């Protein structure tokens, strides 16, 4: 029962739902791409992603200085993800997908420079 509560709590936030929808469309996203999508501070994204990871909905991998996130659908959760995909179809999610198309077209370094300044990625 606790695991189910963790999943429901993780999905009870608009930004976390947006991230789950984005990861459903894009196989994996860098933390900087999620930050750019949500337009929040990196620490806020880190907190959201930790909650999603604790619930078992999201996994991560590190590649050098970059952290990538991806969906990890827990066993038996496929109906939940089908429901989410149907219920999240709307203006906000479609706008997020259009925004993400532009974001993923940027290099990680360019995105980092946009967010943190020229000294970020020499």
Automatic annotation (TrEMBL):
Pfam families: HTH_5. InterPro entries: ArsR-like_HTH, HTH_ArsR_DNA-bd_dom, HTH_MetalResp_TranReg, WH-like_DNA-bd_sf, WH_DNA-bd_sf. SUPFAM superfamilies: Winged helix' DNA-binding domain. CDD domains: HTH_ARSR. It comes from the Bacteria. The keyword Cell membrane does not apply. Residues 1-91 form the HTH arsR-type domain. Keywords: DNA-binding, Transcription, Transcription regulation. This is Metalloregulator ArsR/SmtB family transcription factor. It comes from Pontiella agarivorans. The lineage of its organism: Bacteria, Pseudomonadati, Kiritimatiellota, Kiritimatiellia, Kiritimatiellales.
């Amino acid at each position: 029962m606790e695991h189910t509560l963790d999943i429901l709590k993780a999905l009870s936030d608009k930004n976390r739902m947006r991230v789950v929808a984005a990861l459903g469309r894009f196989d994996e996203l860098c933390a900087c791409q999620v930050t750019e999508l949500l337009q929040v501070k990196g620490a806020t994204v880190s907190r959201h992603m930790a909650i999603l990871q604790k619930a078992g909905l999201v996994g991560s991998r590190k590649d050098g200085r970059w952290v990538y996130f991806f969906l990890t659908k827990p066993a038996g959760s496929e109906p939940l993800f089908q429901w989410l995909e149907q219920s999240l179809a709307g203006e906000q999610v479609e706008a997020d997908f259009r925004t993400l198309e532009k974001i993923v077209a940027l290099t990680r370094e360019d995105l980092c420079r946009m967010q943190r300044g020229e000294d970020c990625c020499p």
